[in-house]
Amino acid sequence: MKYKHLELICFDLVNKKHRTPTRIFLAYRPPSTNDLAVSYLYQLIECPNTYQNKSFVNIITGHLNLPKIDWYQLFSPGAAPRF
User: Fold this and answer.
1) Which conformational region is residue 33 in: left (phi greater than 0), alpha (psi within -120 to 50 degrees), or beta?
2) Residue ranges of the domains in the chain?
3) Cβ within 8 Å of residue 58, ≥6 positions away
4) What is the 3-state secondary structure (H, E, C) of the chain?
5) How far is 76 from 83, CA to CA, in rounded Å?
6) What value does the mean pLDDT take over residues 49-56?
7) Confidence band for 81, pLDDT divided at 50, 70 and 90
8) Of 27, 33, 55, 61, whose CB count within 10 A is highest?
């Protein structure tokens, strides 16, 4: 199990009234900033890409502990070039 160390829950919501089900990924990222944390973040992105269902609405939410991101300006000081 490649993603067993991630703090991530995935579940499907199915409603008989709506035709399109929803898959929700609820994630937690610990508040560390070392190289292991960067690897963790990449796997946290990769996992939903692997397990998404193209016939569902897919939602990723949770607490990602990214305090330096300015969400209004969509800016992060010292952002990694790969992001």
Assistant:
1) alpha
2) 1-83
3) 22, 23, 25, 48, 52
4) CCCCCCEEEEEEECCCCCCCCEEEEEEECCCCCCHHHHHHHHHHHHHHHHHCCCCCEEEEEEECCCCCCECCCCECCCCCCCC
5) 10
6) 92
7) low
8) 27
